[in-house]
């Protein structure tokens, strides 16, 4: 193959998809960040960017399903080169799940990519496997008799994780949750400005051509399907920001008043920080102290604060939350938020690679990290002040167990049950915590608890 043709193949969406999947699988790259980087560096058209995004997320979301489906035509995928497995997944995904793409286009690119990355023999093998898929389809996971394995393969979720959730929420809810993660996410917005109502904002978005509806979860939330919201004047003017609806529930739990001094101990990228700031008044000395360990993440908070016109109420510091106890005076904050580092299992719809890389030991390790942060900030809270602890995960070790252990070690703190007119009763635990699963409302999974210092 001449160099001109090789370079042409390397510029195709399918070739780029294989390379991205290789980096995610073998180098631990984050799919969303790498996708954005490639789309910009390759200067892809909106159409190609959309297809690349669909293929990459689709293959990651359904990796185990695709591998099972291809197993009828592949003797030992573990002995195959990694790029070859990803090429077959990319091709099979398009042939089975993207019905508008003609098979001949998929087959042609797959064979040419195999020639560039391998040789003529591998190209012939790829052609043979995909011709079988074209004739007979993928092996049907629905015929698996064992329920755990069927959910695991069908929803592409590791079997140990399926078993973990079955033990916690039962097989029926686990199945609903696991398959809900295969549904495409919508874009969630939060109304930042008090100058217009949510209904007015939705009306303006519809006039701009967006398919916008009110959130069923947050009173300041809006959902849109399709469209590039960053192009909207409402977004550019700082009236709206992108933030998942479940995380929009965190700031109100603090019951903030205009003159409060607030600590947001794990603040980046600033969605919750700017929401907190919207309740405060700079003229009344209300302020959020926002912490993060990394300078580049602090820059994101500052950028968000500037765009949303709340930079006069936000003060940022590059600081590990575990060191906060040494940086601020005891009992100096009215409310403290800890949106703790966690396994992120609530984000599996938007970051599907998470489900393949986490293990049960991670939950316990993070539990210890979370306790260290809570211990550090607890002495900084005024008596009568609220400590709001939240995560974007679904594990008892990082949620209920962390709060209960902290309470057990700090008799001066008591749990305050959370109330919401928007959430279904299933979203509240017996202790008064909020636990949202991805299939409950189509949002990220999220946990929120509130404690008061006596």
From TrEMBL:
<dbReference type="GO" id="GO:0005737">
    <property type="term" value="C:cytoplasm"/>
</dbReference>
<dbReference type="InterPro" id="IPR006027">
    <property type="entry name" value="NusB_RsmB_TIM44"/>
</dbReference>
<dbReference type="GO" id="GO:0008649">
    <property type="term" value="F:rRNA methyltransferase activity"/>
</dbReference>
<comment type="function">
    <text>Specifically methylates the cytosine at position 967 (m5C967) of 16S rRNA.</text>
</comment>
<protein>
    <recommendedName>
        <fullName>16S rRNA (cytosine(967)-C(5))-methyltransferase</fullName>
        <ecNumber>2.1.1.176</ecNumber>
    </recommendedName>
</protein>
<dbReference type="InterPro" id="IPR023267">
    <property type="entry name" value="RCMT"/>
</dbReference>
<dbReference type="InterPro" id="IPR035926">
    <property type="entry name" value="NusB-like_sf"/>
</dbReference>
<keyword id="KW-0808">Transferase</keyword>
<dbReference type="InterPro" id="IPR001678">
    <property type="entry name" value="MeTrfase_RsmB-F_NOP2_dom"/>
</dbReference>
<keyword id="KW-0489">Methyltransferase</keyword>
<feature type="domain" description="SAM-dependent MTase RsmB/NOP-type">
    <location>
        <begin position="177"/>
        <end position="454"/>
    </location>
</feature>
<dbReference type="Pfam" id="PF01029">
    <property type="entry name" value="NusB"/>
</dbReference>
<dbReference type="InterPro" id="IPR054728">
    <property type="entry name" value="RsmB-like_ferredoxin"/>
</dbReference>
<dbReference type="InterPro" id="IPR029063">
    <property type="entry name" value="SAM-dependent_MTases_sf"/>
</dbReference>
<dbReference type="GO" id="GO:0003723">
    <property type="term" value="F:RNA binding"/>
</dbReference>
<keyword id="KW-0694">RNA-binding</keyword>
<keyword id="KW-0698">rRNA processing</keyword>
<dbReference type="InterPro" id="IPR004573">
    <property type="entry name" value="rRNA_ssu_MeTfrase_B"/>
</dbReference>
<dbReference type="Pfam" id="PF22458">
    <property type="entry name" value="RsmF-B_ferredox"/>
</dbReference>
<keyword id="KW-0949">S-adenosyl-L-methionine</keyword>
<dbReference type="Pfam" id="PF01189">
    <property type="entry name" value="Methyltr_RsmB-F"/>
</dbReference>
<dbReference type="InterPro" id="IPR049560">
    <property type="entry name" value="MeTrfase_RsmB-F_NOP2_cat"/>
</dbReference>
<dbReference type="GO" id="GO:0006355">
    <property type="term" value="P:regulation of DNA-templated transcription"/>
</dbReference>
<keyword id="KW-0963">Cytoplasm</keyword>
């Amino acid at each position: 193959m001449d160099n001109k043709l090789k370079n042409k193949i390397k510029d195709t969406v399918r070739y780029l998809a294989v390379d991205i999947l290789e980096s995610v699988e073998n180098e631990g790259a984050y799919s969303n960040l790498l996708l954005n980087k490639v789309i910009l560096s390759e200067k892809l058209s909106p159409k190609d960017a959309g297809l690349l995004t669909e293929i990459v997320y689709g293959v990651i979301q359904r990796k185990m399903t695709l591998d099972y489906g291809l197993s009828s035509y592949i003797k030992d995928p573990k002995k195959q080169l990694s790029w070859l497995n990803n090429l077959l997944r990319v091709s099979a995904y398009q042939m089975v799940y993207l019905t508008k793409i003609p098979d001949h286009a998929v087959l042609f690119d797959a064979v040419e990519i195999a020639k560039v990355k391998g040789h003529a023999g591998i190209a012939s093998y790829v052609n043979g496997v995909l011709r079988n898929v074209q004739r007979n389809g993928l092996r049907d996971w629905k015929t698996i008799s064992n329920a755990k394995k069927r959910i695991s393969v069908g929803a592409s979720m590791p079997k140990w994780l399926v078993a973990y959730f079955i033990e916690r929420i039962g097989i029926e809810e686990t199945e609903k949750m696991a398959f809900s993660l295969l549904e495409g996410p919508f874009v969630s917005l939060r109304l930042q400005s008090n100058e217009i109502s949510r209904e007015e904002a939705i009306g303006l978005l519809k006039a701009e051509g967006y398919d916008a509806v009110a959130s069923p979860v947050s009173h300041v939330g809006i959902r849109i399907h399709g469209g590039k919201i960053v192009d909207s004047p409402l977004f550019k003017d700082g009236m709206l920001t992108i933030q998942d609806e479940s995380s929009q529930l965190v700031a109100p739990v603090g019951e903030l008043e205009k003159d409060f001094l607030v600590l947001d101990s794990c603040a980046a990228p600033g969605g919750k920080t700017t929401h907190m700031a919207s309740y405060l008044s700079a003229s009344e000395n209300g302020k959020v102290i926002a912490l993060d360990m990394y300078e580049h993440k602090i820059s994101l908070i500052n950028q968000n604060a500037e765009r949303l016109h709340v930079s006069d109420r936000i003060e940022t510091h590059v600081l590990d939350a575990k060191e906060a106890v040494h940086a601020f005076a005891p009992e100096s904050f009215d409310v403290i938020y800890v949106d703790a580092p966690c396994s992120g299992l609530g984000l599996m719809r938007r970051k599907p690679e998470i489900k393949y890389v986490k293990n049960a030991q991670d939950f316990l390790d993070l539990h210890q990290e979370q306790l260290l942060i809570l211990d550090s900030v607890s002495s900084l809270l005024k008596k009568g002040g609220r400590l709001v602890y939240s995560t974007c995960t679904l594990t008892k070790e990082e949620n209920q167990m962390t709060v209960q252990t902290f309470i057990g070690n700090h008799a001066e703190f008591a749990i305050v049950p959370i109330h919401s007119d928007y959430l279904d009763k299933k979203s509240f635990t017996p202790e008064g915590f909020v636990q949202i699963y991805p299939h409950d409302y189509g949002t990220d999974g999220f946990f929120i608890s509130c404690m008061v210092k006596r």
